[in-house]
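Researcher: Let's walk through a ligand-bound prediction step by step. First, I give you the protein sequence. Second, the SMILES string for magnesium ion. Third, you return the three-dimensional complex as structure tokens. Ready?
Model: Ready.
Researcher: Here are steps one and two:
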Amino acid sequence: MHALLDRPLWVFDMDGTLTVPAHDFAAFKAKHGLPADRDLLGATLALPEPRRREVLDAIDVWEDAIARAAQAQDDAVALLDALVEQGARCAVLTRNSREGAFITLEAAGLLPYFVDQDLILGRDCALAKPAPDGVLEVLRRAGSTPAEAVMVGDWVFDVMAGRNAGTATVLVERHGPAPEDWRSWCDVRVERLDVLIS
Ligand SMILES: [Mg+2]
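Model: Step three, the predicted complex:
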């Protein structure tokens, strides 16, 4: 058991962390004429209207189709089982919409782990990661402090958001070691989430 397992509040990124990643961001950005070197949400929000609204609507349609076919990561399920068993609370903080998060978690069979559904936050609930706002909002809703919480994700924005909010941070590297410049943002790096409970 990793020492972090003592912490009573766990905040999870969704896509690629709890669920099998299915979004082809490069293809979507190419299709909509967005710069390949910027994150999708950032590039879209920087567009002038009415293009901004059009692309945001296209993102909603794209995400909805993927959400309805979502599958859980086995190693994430093992960690969630252990956390719930020991009485920890689990939260989701995603750059997806909040509605999309519910559809995804339901389709993947993960919704029952998030007993307090106020702790499922999307990009419409707070300034998106890497800003700390979403993590801080989870803490506020849970009545918790940063020292009681862990932020878990598979992308540098996840661990940046956690670190910026003062929580412990876990980066899951299922596809090999993360880039060097991501590492200073995480306290723990694991190949699979279930190594935290072994
Ligand atoms: Mg992710």
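Researcher: And what stands out?
Model: The longest strand covers residues 89-93. The pocket of magnesium ion is lined by residues 13, 15-17, 153-155 (CB under 6 Å).
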